[in-house]
Amino acid sequence: MKKKSLLIICLVMVLVLSLGVSSAKAIKPFKGLADIPEIKNKRPIHVALEAGGGAEIQLKYIKKFSEKTGVPVTHELMLMSVVYPKVMPELVAGTGAYDCTVVETTWTNEWSPYLYSIDELAAKFDPAGVEGWKLDAAGIGTTMRRCASDRFGVQYGMPYYTYDEFLFVREDITNHPTEKANFKAKYGYELRIPKTWKGLMDQAEFFTRKKGERLKGEPLKHDFYGFAAMAGNFAHVHDSYPSVLWGMGGNYQTVVKEKLFGDVIEYVWEKKNVELMIKAGEFYRKLVLDYSSPGCRTGFWDYNTSQIAEGYAYMMDNYIPLDQWAFTVEEKVPGARLVIAPLPEAPYESRGYVGNFYQGVTKASKNPEAAFWLMRYMGSYEFQKAAGEEGWASIRSDLYKEPQYKLPEWRTKIGARGEMLLRNWSEWSTPEVVDTYFHFNSKAAGRMYEMHILPLHQMATGMISVKDAVKWIITETIILEQKFGDRPIRVEEGIWELLK
């Protein structure tokens, strides 16, 4: 009798295991429109989208979604400086004004109470359940997924556009024999794409020239600058400055956690980081005031990219989507060749600003089913491939690994950016690194981000001292964390004396 019972138990276990295997095999990978099931709720949905750059590319694909599903989709295009103050009150009030909204990843921990997690939505609306979503997510850069998650690792939206920051350099100038010889004579080492902050500053100085001076042996018809900064009173000065700070091995407030990808115990302003904030501030201000066009003091990515595209500057730090505009210098300036390189400095290569825009489904939505599938589609391989071939900054690592995009004809559209992004997500700004930034941990991070803009702008343009800017940032960060955050924050001894 015991043998018979044991045999029955074994047979049941084999059956359960085989069903599990067959179920796993039965999950069809989600690729795009054809894989969206019939949406029962046909109520129209309204979506908030970012504007600027190549934002219009996404609109025709949203129209295709509407045609396929029968769900009307209306949208609002907003500059990112408008999204936070416009969408946040709607979320808090639960108005349902937006069924789906663009989210900048710094806002995730603050907005998470008002958004559905993807797991919640997938469990309810995806026939393959959460496992179907996970299978699709495997093709997305892991750093992109961490950026779209709260500090506990819960993902609240589908990344669909990245703006990781890198160095853009006129390689034709770097490799010119006369320039190389003159540079070595002045600085005592070979001219190459800068891998250190000293090298970057030396090159910014060396290539800043007046009209009539020679560049590549030819007299300049206009002033030429060694660098093009983003120092205007906009969000982008915030993104440029930490690219230097992180690259120098520093950070803002230290995030003390129970464990990696775990809860936060406290935030600490450490003296070593404050010292590096001062160093990074002095460095960045010199780049802005001495070696960038005066227009960079009031501009953002629009102005500094135009400096490169029109042949007025040697290098810039900028977001990866701006490569499409920047590469046009190769059409406008004879012999020009632009390359994308990691920001300095080893072992902190390319610790540029990192993040993405993702679509999140609001809990006040009257049609979360349709909003979920629109979100899934915008991050799908089909959408990302089609839009990526038009210049859209894809978040999918599986797309960038496709052999065809390594061919020369794809260099300026997908190839160059893909190489940098794949390395960034696997070597430099990995999920483990990103997890140490307050941006992706604090519930007050969105407010802190906005607060940083003015002191950094005034510091970079010489209106206030570097120490005053750092003191301003620390003071306001403490106030914001205490008022809108949920964890203790403190300052190490000796910091206030350092900032006198």
Kindly provide the name of the CATH class of the largest domain.
Alpha Beta
Distance between the termini: 86 Å
Looking at the structure, the CATH topology of the largest domain is: D-Maltodextrin-Binding Protein, domain 2
CATH homologous superfamily of the largest domain - what is it? Periplasmic binding protein-like II
Question: Overall mean pLDDT score?
Answer: 94
Q: Which CATH architecture of the largest domain would you pick?
A: 3-Layer(aba) Sandwich
Total helix count?
A: 23
The portion of residues assigned to helices is: 40-55%
Number of strands: 13
Radius of gyration: 25 Å
Overall geometry: globular
Task: Identify the strand order in the major beta sheet.
Answer: 2-1-3-12-4
Please report which band the strand proportion falls in: under 5%, 5-15%, 15-25%, 25-35%, 35-45% or over 45%: 5-15%
Decide which structural class fits the backbone. Answer: alpha/beta
List the helices and strands and how they pair.
Blueprint: H1 2-26, E1 45-50, H2 57-69, E2 73-78, H3 80-93, E3 100-104, H4 108-111, H5 118-125, H6 129-137, H7 142-147, E4 158-162, E5 165-170, H8 171-174, H9 177-187, H10 197-206, E6 214-215, E7 218-219, H11 235-247, E8 254-257, E9 264-269, H12 271-291, H13 301-309, E10 315-319, H14 323-326, H15 329-332, E11 338-341, E12 356-361, H16 368-378, H17 381-388, H18 397-400, H19 411-428, H20 431-434, H21 445-460, H22 466-484, E13 489-491, H23 495-498
Parallel strand pairs: 1-2, 1-3, 9-13
Antiparallel strand pairs: 3-12, 4-12, 5-10, 5-11, 6-7, 8-9
Helix pairs in contact: 2-16, 5-6, 11-12, 11-21, 21-22
